Amino acid sequence: MKIREISHGDTLAREQGDVMASIRVHLLIASCGLLMLAAAAAAGSEVERRVPARPDGLVTVSNVAGSVTVVGWNRDEVEVIGYLGHRVEELEIDSSGRVTDIEVELRGRSHGSDSSARLEIRVPQGSDLDIEVVSAEVEVSDVHGDVTIETVSGSIDLEGTSKAADLESVSGSINVEGNFDRLDAESVSGRIRVRGEAREVELSTVSGELELRVDGIRRGDLSTTSGSIELVGKLDARAEIEADSHSGRVELQLPPSTSARFRVSTHSGRISNELGPPAERTSRYGPGRKLEFELGGGDGRITIDTFSGSVSLRRR
Amino acid sequence: MCETPDMRETKSPEPSCRQVDPLLDDLIDGQLSEGQQEAVRRHLAGCQACREQLASLERLLDEVAALPRAVEVPRDLWSDIEPRLTERPMAATSGRWPDLRQVAAALLFMTLGGVLTHFVQPALRRPVDVSNPQPSTTVQTVELMATERRADFALAEADYLRAKEALWSAVYSNRQDVSPVTRDVVERNLEVIDQAIRELRAALHVDPGNHQLENLLLGQHRTEIDLLQRLALRTSEI
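YS: structure for the whole thing
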């Protein structure tokens, strides 16, 4: 009896244990299922499409969050692979004439990662590009047409050779590397960094830094309020460079073979010069300083103005 | 001689000067209906002040049209933005945009500001060669030019301030549409610019008419306008 009882009790216990175990397994399976469903929902969907495109057409891209990666290729078609958050209503791709529009449409006004879309796009190398995003990061490479990119907080990385690039961001950084006929870049607080060769550059930022390691500049217009400006490179023979900053430091590193007339003035900053004579005071009592001199044949023209930012001309 | 708007309104249904004035732009652009055109032209026939206003507007537009392409007129973002507002309100760039009339007003200010600045900047940059005076360059002429330059500068600065005010209004009536992070970045940077403007004004107070300071100050105004313009037109974050 005892044994039986024990046995019965044991059996009961075992049965109860089996039931509990079974419930746990079912719960586990159900939980896994729910998790997988949730993950699937969060992962959203994947889209892959190709449309024919002209070799020198225009491709426009509009996205909010996530990323946009564009690579030029040697086919006359546009390929889009999109990984879409579940609050993305649709990835619309329209091709008409020379224009291919790629647009991420959201359900209402969405926030968060579920409204992001990661787009990987291939376009004919000769395409013009026009990209608008909010917080998405943008990377473009090997596209030879005109490139226009606007972001709010997303960073911009552009690499390759373009006729013209026009880049704009509020707080995202802008990195450019390659060979450009014309480069315009503007930010509020994001750093702008340029490497390579460029004929005409116009860069401005409020508090971000401008950093150029660029050869061949024919015309340069560099402007900040508090951000620093640093230009290192060999200028075009008749380069015209204007750099101004309110309180940011301005530094030019140029080879001694540079041929240009320099005009530097600052209201209260310092000027140091390794390329020519020292600066002089603009008045006996005020803090202002100016520097005017010619290097080589004086073919180019370099003008620097600051309020309180220091100016440094260094030998490269 | 033009009657006052109130008198005119009580005497006949014909439009008053106040009503006609905002229609002059559209008249030049050919945007008025036949009826409106006829009413405006009838008013113009009897109102010398409005005729002069129309002639002045036409002259201004001619001068703007004659400006060289290289002149840096503020970028016309409007033509770029408008289709997006009307054609795809729920697209990726959707969200509430600033009151269009406010933005349009701001852009109008800015366009005028740009034009004014282009007239003013060459004057500001024009060197006064006192070391090698031409026969007509007397001390009085130099002084007159300096006075004119200061007046031009004051006009240019006033113009920037008006544009800024209009843009502030557009931006801040919709500031909830800008993400807190972006708003913080913009506000911090506007403060950086305002600080620069304060410093430049203080320096100009000590050294009025300093050409370099004036140019730096206008440059900061331009930077601020540009920032506000971008914020007003683009940063409706979702």
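YS: worth flagging: The two ends of chain B are 54 Å apart (CA to CA).
IM: good catch. Also The mean pLDDT of chain B is 64.
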